[in-house]
Every structure is written in structure tokens, then in C-alpha cells.
Write a structure and sequence with these properties.
Blueprint (H helix, E strand, L loop, with lengths): L4 H14 L6 E4 L10 H8 L5 E5 L1 E2 L4 E2 L5 H15 E2 L4 E8 L2 E8 L10 E2 L2 E6 L2 E4 L2 H15 L19 H14 L8 H7 L11 H7 L12 E6 L9 E7 L3 H15 L2 E5 L5 E5 L3 H13 L5 H4 L5 E5 L3 E7 L7 H5 L10 H7 L17 H11 L6 E4 L3 E7 L7 H4 L17
Parallel strand pairs: 1-2, 11-15
Antiparallel strand pairs: 2-7, 3-4, 5-8, 6-7, 8-9, 9-10, 11-12, 13-14, 15-16, 16-18, 17-18
Helix pairs in contact: 7-12, 8-9, 9-13
Amino acid sequence: MMWTVEQLEDYLEHCRLLQSDTTTVEVKSGRGGMPQSLGATLCAFANMPRGGTVIIGVAEPGFAVHGVDDPGAIESALADQARTLVEPAPYIETQTLHIEGRAVVLGHIEGVLPHQRPALYRGRPYLRMADGDYVMSANDLRMVEVDKLHAREAIAYDSAPVPGSNLEVCDALVLKEAVAELRSATPRLRSASDAELLELFRVVDSQGQLSVAGLYALGRFPQGFFPDLHISAAVQYPAGEEGPRTRNLEEFYGPVPDLVDGAVAWVHRNIDTDLVYGTDGHLREVPELPLEAVREVIANAVVHRDLGPESLGAGKFVTVRLTRQALIVTSPGGLRGISVEELRGKMLSPVAVNPRLYTLSTKLRLEDGERVIEGQGGGMRVVFESLRKAGLRPPTLIDTGVRFTVTLWRAGRGDDEHDAAPHGANASSLSAPELRA
């Protein structure tokens, strides 16, 4: 959990570039002693699965290091605030680093266990969003409660029936292709009727109602039942600049394959393209971000998003935002049954948040002929490997417990958080000011 001087310097340079601290790190000046306004931040970090870090002795704006006069007293006071202001008290580990002779104090706050959430400050639960702390909404609190249940037992919201739905609201072509793929992949069911097949795979129930998974994957217009099953995409400009905040705002509707195809095509249209000569001498257009990585990230956001009532009825949808530094994809719901560290690992087994939807998505194909989901847990490996081959930084992965964000850095426009943060502390989720999106 400990930082090095080099990691701290790299992180501060990252903040100067982005003119902000980040989701998992809070920077405080500490002039005049221990800041007295950290209770909400400590609480918000305690409610994050991987916690967060407070840095004291650095001034905003500019992130200049001026240090603190009595680092020992600051460390003690920081630990005391975590112990006395937050209930239940999170574990905190403190240290002091010296940059150019100036003492900087760091404190890493561990997230409390799922069954202990939400942690409270002055009786109120806080959530970390972008670089700020906010009181949890009623829907956020319900998602925390759902997360507790997921820690004890699986909740398959995608199997729930959708009242008023039936096969007539499905996209006929997508449905036909899905039935053929399901039958082909299951020899024992090749003689089953279409109706039997669809009921066995929980696309419909015994009354002929579509499940949430069946509607989302195969429906002609699932958003007619659940408006939040869409994707919002936009190019976003920094706050404080004159002119529009966004451009090329577009929303995508339809079943899962259409959502993924539409959003990937939007990204392709809005990122830069280089002209590169291949080894055969032919000139080719090469997108600045590998489209296979973009497709995997968007497909995962669509398929693994939370489908519970706390999301579908609360205006929570998948967002795609393109900034000058990065492409940011955010989906409702935190990680379930897997950690950020495991996503980075080379030996990754498939974990389905929505098992019925996941199964269907392994049988559905996109416009380019690829399956929506590979189905072997290798999607994130494709993301990391394709970015590496393109000479780009690894992605930033941030799990706040109620939403999950993946940031793909554009060439030369951001810092590598994997190098900028200590391994085991915030190495996978250090920088994400783009969560303002």
C-alpha cells in the first residue's frame, strides 16, 4: 500500500496535466496544520471497494509541493479522523515522503467490507464521484444493499419476466439467428422446438413473457420497456472553456448487437485516424485506438451493467465520453464476483453478472461477424494486448461500487496510472477526472 517518491511525483505531474485530482486520490494543502474537512472524503473512500488515498502538503491549483511542518502530527491526526469521524472506522495506513526537502503525508484508506457498507460520516453515507464527495442518493443506497446480497448470494435480475412482453416484440432477424446459434451449440436440444429452446434458455417464461435478458438481447426496441437500456455518447470539452461543453451527442437504441455496433461506429467516426503504409506497401487507415479494444470495452459495459430496479428505473445508463485525453466508458453497477486486480491478470475466468444475457450474447454476432461476447473470459486480455501492440498505455479501471469505468488513453494525452501509482494501492484506478462525464 506504500507509495514511492517517484510514484508521487508522477501522480502530481498527471494532476497538473489534467488540472484536477482524481477519483481515488484527494490532494490537500495542509497549510496551517491538519485539514478539518476530510470527514466526507474519508467516508467516501471507505465506501469504495479498493479505498482511496489522501495526500497532504500539495496545493491546488498547480499541485505545487510546499510540504507540512509537522508530518508526525499530521499522520496522527489523519489516523484519528479516520477512526473517530467515520462509522465503521476504516483501516488507514500513513506514511511521509520527502520531495525537494519538503514533507508530504499520505494516508491510504481501505474500503470497509461489503457487509459493513455504507460507512457514515455524521450519520450520512458518502460516495466518491470524479474528484468530489457526495451524499449517496436513495438509489445509490439500494445498490449498496444489492451489493451486500451479491456478496452472499447471486441475484439474477436478467431472468426476471417483463410484464406485457412476448416474442412479437423481438427483432425477427436477431431472434432467428439466436435460435439457430443456441440450437447449434447445444446438441442435446437440436430436436427441440423453437418454443422449448427459448424457454430452456430463459428467453421467455412459461407464460410467454420475455425475460429482461431476452428483451435486452433480442427486442426490436427494448427501450420502450426500459428507457435506460440505451447508450449515450458525446465528445466532451473541459469545464471552464468558452463554447459548447459537448458535441456529436448521440444516443443508441435497439437490442444488444445494435447498441454495440452503433457505439463502436460512433467512436470510430470521432477519433483520429492515421494513414500507415503496411509491409505490403499499401496505405491503410489506422484508428488511434484499436477498435477491438473499443468493442470489447463497450460490449462488456452493455452486457455486464446492473439490470436491477435500482438502475433500470433510476436514469442509469451506459455512457461513452471522448475527451482530449481519453475514451471513457461507464456502466451502472460495480464489479460482481471479480476485482480490478483480477481483470488485469493473465489467468482470468469468465464471470457473468447477468448469466442469461451473457449466454445469449455469446451467440449474437455484430456487423463485422464477431460475437458480442467471446465467452471465455478473454475480453479484457484482448483490450490490454491490443493497446500494448498499438503502443498505448494500459487502461484505467475504476470500481466505485455503484458504477464501473474503463478509460482508454489516447496517444500522448495522459499518464500511465499503472506506473504512477503503487502496486496494491491504487495501481488500477488512480486517474479518472473524466468521471465528470
